[in-house]
Amino acid sequence: MSAVNTIVQSHVTDGTIGENDGPVIVVSRGFSEAGKALESKGCSISDVVFRSGTKEPLWPHDLDGPGFAACLLDNVLAPSAEPAKLLADTFSILQPAGRIVIVLSDDPRSGQSRHGGRRRGRRQGGFQGESLPALLFQEGFERPRFHACGTKTVVTAYRSKLLPPSQRPQRLSVIMPVFNERQTFRKAIDSLLGKSIPGMEIDIIIVESNSTDGTRDDVLEYSDHPRVRTILEDRPQGKGHAVRVGIAEARGDFLIIQDADLEYDIDDYDSLLEPLRRFEVGFVLGMRTSPDGSWGMRQFGERNFVSRVMNVGHIFFLMLFNAVYSQRLHDPFTMYKVMRRDCLYGLTFECNRFDFDWELTAKLIRAGYVPRELPASYESRSFTDGKKVSFFGDPMTWIVACFKYRFVRLYR
Length: 412
Description:
Mean pLDDT: 85
Structural class: alpha/beta
Strand order of the largest sheet: 11-10-9-12-14-13-15
Low-confidence stretches: 108-121
Strand content: 15-25%
Shape: elongated
Number of helices: 11
CATH architecture of the largest domain: Alpha-Beta Complex
CATH topology of the largest domain: Spore Coat Polysaccharide Biosynthesis Protein SpsA, Chain A
Number of strands: 15
Radius of gyration: 23 Å
CATH superfamily of the largest domain: Spore Coat Polysaccharide Biosynthesis Protein SpsA, Chain A
Distance between the termini: 24 Å
CATH class of the largest domain: Alpha Beta
Number of domains: 2
Order of helices and strands: HEHEEHEEEHEEEHEHEHEHEHEHEH
């Protein structure tokens, strides 16, 4: 059995689709080996074959709403075949949470990526860069996975239970880790609750790590707010751990990480989200820029020496990251990471401290998502103001993370 058929069968028949779940529909331009393999496994198959020279399939005339448990698009989804319309039609005939399996054929000379073919300059079944993941999201499909099979790629995803994002208000989940931030927390959360973005709903996930300065009492005052969800940890385990907890609970179309220390400006949300809402990219980095626009992000007032050392360290770590991951980024370690939630599907994370910034960026890049960097206002606070990075301890964890996450297994 071919690798393509194995993946197709695993996603459909091993995905608990049975006789009572509805038939499987196969769309092809002729004989579909993968479709026949599904039929041999006992799936009830409804074949839909393209007419020669046409771009649209002949859907069954009796389709009056969602009825299929899964749809296999076998070598028919390509830019020349109006993929957006084909995906929209597929969305309309699938049951909520129904599965879509797409088989794409690639020219072996095109340099297809083993990481899913989503990196800039690489093509995948006629799709350039990140256009296919963005198209799936745009047409209402979630939890995408890309499986390389020689010169073919199998894409698997699920029909969302919600309408496609272009037909409903989109949602942003703000993940806010909080620990000992009593001086700034109220101002930060009140600013967030007052923030509005046209056509977008905003919910806030606060992960409070049992502060010792009374911040937890302030957090609890917002626990009944309809747009706020509070998660109380029994002990501090690091910012990375708190962010990971928040990511696991987030349900928005987009995610953004927001500290409670007022170093970043929430007015930058609109510009950072714009390329994601236009379905251009899946991952944006808010490139830190000092208030006066001068070189160096960290300015600690009278502690000029500390700020200079940290700015020089940033250059060193930036060169290291770009060399290891073949990038030309300016600020991969920024807290302002904005992404489509579906980009994280299947990825596992383990870092508990500030090395999580390295792990998250590294794994998204390895998954094929090329981050777009946009300027974000940044006014760094000093260690005396409560900055929690360990001047001597954390840098070593960053070096370990840089090399470790270049080679570890990417998906579970």
